[in-house]
Amino acid sequence: RAHPMLAFFHEGYIRLAMEPYSEENTEDRFAHLASSRVQREHADYTRKVKRALMTIDELVAELSRVVGEPTDPVEEWIKPQLKAAMRHVLKSGQMRLVKANGQFCILGVNAVIDDDLNVYITRLSRNPSLHMHQQNVDQIMSAMICEATEIALQANTRESGGRFCAPSCLEHFEFLLDESTHDDGSAAPAMGVVSCSS
């Protein structure tokens, strides 16, 4: 919902570039862009695509292996930065969003994570690719679409008064921003009384 802004965060999945990143080689699109459209143009796409998509749990395992200690840098460092950046982007672009009741949007967010785990948003898409042809990621996306639809329906019903769902509806999404309660997402929101279907 755009006015007042109501937004949620889903950690989604990871799409890696098809070639190793290099600051020196700025001409290699396969090292700098990870969109599915660009990836499909890679000569070795069929073989490399399975390694280019991963779940957040797979990313955590890989980062823990590289760092050499059990840790969850996604929860501790990456997600807080990404959520703060998303709040900023949403607030900055709010006036350009459609103000009609009952509308919602699933935004795709591309971000780069550097060696120090700093997050940089590089692109937002209002038409993200939702079918990956890889079972682990397809399952995440299917569940995300169902839950996003349920949240949108609940947030826009007359009974809800514009308040968002109780936590029972928020299985994989996290609260990001609710301007109707003047909550910028930095604290747990006050819940409205809204029944949610399972």
TrEMBL record:
Coiled-coil segments on the chain, per record: none
Pfam hit, one: TTL
Stated name of the protein: Uncharacterized protein
